Amino acid sequence: MRWIITVCIALIAGFAGAAAWDYAGLGPDRTRQALLANPEILPEAMQELQRRDTLARIGPLRTELEAPFPGAVLGNPDGEITLVEFTDYACGYCRQSLSHVNQLVANNPDLKVVIREYPILSEGSANAARMALAAAQQGRYEAFHNAMFSAESLSDESIAAAATQAGVDLELARAAIEEGRYEGQLQNNVFLAQNLGVSGTPAWIVGDQVLSGAVGTDTLGAAIAEARDS
Q1: pTM for the whole thing?
Q2: How far apart are CA 209 and CA 178, in angstroms?
Q3: Cα 170 vs. chain centroid, distance in angstroms?
Q4: Rounded to whole angstroms, how far apart are CA atoms 82 and 204?
Q5: CB atoms within 10 A of CB 193
Q6: Which of 38, 44, 58, 160 has the most CB atoms lying inside 10 A of its own CB?
Q7: 153 CB neighbour count, 10 Å cutoff
Q8: Which residues of 90-116 are buried (b: 16+ CB within 10 A; e: fewer)?
Q9: How many Cβ atoms are within 10 Å of 195's Cβ, its own excluded?
Q10: For residues 23 and 192, what is the distance between their CA atoms, to the nearest angstrom?
C-alpha cells in the first residue's frame, strides 16, 4: 500500500505522469490497475498531502507564532502545550468558542493559549483589539477578553466599559493606542495568518494542525492530545 500512497501524492502534487511512474518504480499500466483496485487510498493520499503542506507552513513560523504578545495568554503561561487562536471581537463564532477555550484550560493544566488579535471584520473590532493589547500590557488581558465578548455591542462605549470592568487604566491605554504602540503586533498577526492560510476567525494552530471555525472542545481536545503525544 505504501507505494500506492507514494504514487498518489506524486500525482496530486502535480508531477508529470511519467515522472510519477519512474518515482514509484512502476509502469503506467500497473499503476493504473493498482489505483483502480484500491480507490480508497486516494482520500488517504490527499490527507497526507495536506498534512505535509500544513507542516511545511507551520514549521518556519512556529517559534514566532507561539511567542505571545506579553500578557495576551490564557491558561498556563508556562504550559508545555500551546494552542494559538486567531480571534476577532466582532466574530460570533469566536464568542461561541470562548466557553470551549475556558473548558480546555480547565481540563488541561499544561495548556498555554496564545491569543492573536486578528480584527478583520470591522473598525470596531480593530479598536477592541488595540484595547485588548493595552489590557495585556497592564496584566488585565483575560478580564478584558471575557468582558469584551460579554458586551452586547462593539462600540467605543462598550470597549471602554469592558476595559473599566477589567480594571484597565484607560488613560494609559488610550495614550499607548494613540502612540500606535500596537500596530506592529496587529500587522504581524496579519502576516502570520496569511502565511498560514488563515482567512477567517476563529482559527486554531496546535501541534501540526490548522483548524478553522468554532470546531468545539472535542475536536480541539483531540488535537491537543495529539500534540502532547507527538
Answers
A1: 0.78
A2: 37
A3: 29
A4: 10
A5: 19
A6: 58
A7: 9
A8: bbeebbebbebbbebbeebeebbbbbb
A9: 14
A10: 34
